Each structure stands twice: as structure tokens, then as C-alpha cells.
Amino acid sequence: MVDTWGLAFGRASTAGLPELARSAVIETLREGHARPMELRSQVCSRPALPGRRTLSQLVTAVEQGSHSELELWGVDHVLHGPGMPVFVQQHPVRLRSGTVRLDAAVVHLQVGVELDGAAFHGSAEARERDTRRDVALAALGWVVLRFSYQRLMTDPEGCRREILAVCRARAALLLPR
Fold it and tell me: What is the pTM of this model?
């Protein structure tokens, strides 16, 4: 993995290789084929590795809960910023059917945020699965906000405003005065 990263980010890199290397690292860590500590150890042993800092930052972001390029982008451009609440990434919620993980959650307000890319949410079956999941979460008191790739890319500020508005409304309903 680290050797491939070095090739992708080196001087002789071919167009598209950095994106492939990023995707490979994200998937490898997400699927548990390697642990962040193992990758960090390999990175530390190669001080001349091209893109070394970028790889370290990516490993940290995945370790913190970003499991796709869309989630990485969403955390940086939507979920973080002035006035935004603190989110827990990949927050587990136990349902009757099993445990689900929310991309991001404001736990004390029971507000979940899902960043829906076409790869995992584009088919009719996936949309049905998401709808059933959201209904089960609502039965437990959760409000789930879903933002599509298109919406996140074209209107990150609008997404941020909506998240803040829902969090303010939930705080008014749930938190003691």
C-alpha cells in the first residue's frame, strides 16, 4: 500500500493514480485489511516517501471516521466551520435489526447526518434500505438529515444552514431551559 502511494505521488506519476491510491487506502482501512498503526509505521520508516504528509493526514481522517472521499470532503467543507456543533463520526445506534452507523451525529440532540454518494445510495434498493433505516431511527427519536453528493458539492453553505437550523430546533425541544 505504501509503495503504491509513493509511485502514485512520485515524479513519474500518471494522471489518476493519486485518486486511485487514495481510494485504495480508504477502502483498505475501512474494510480492516490494514490498521492505521501499521500504515503509520510504514510511513515513518520511509522519510523520503512522496506524499508522506498527505498519506498521514488521510490515515488520520479515516481513523476519525471518514469512510469515503465524499465523507472526507463533507467533514472539511460542511460539518466543520463557525457555529457548527461537534459531530461524532460513524456513531453507532442499536436498532432491532442490528447496529447502524451514522456518518455524523450530534448525539445529545439525536441528529444524524448522512452524506449520500451514488456508489452506496444510488440504486432503488439502497434508497429503500435508507428509508427503512431512517424510519427505525425516527422511532428511537433520531432526526436524520440526508445530503446528496450533488447538493453537498453545489450548496455546502445551504447544507450547513439546514444542519444548524435543525440542531437549534432540536435543542429547543430537548434541552432543559
Answer: 0.83
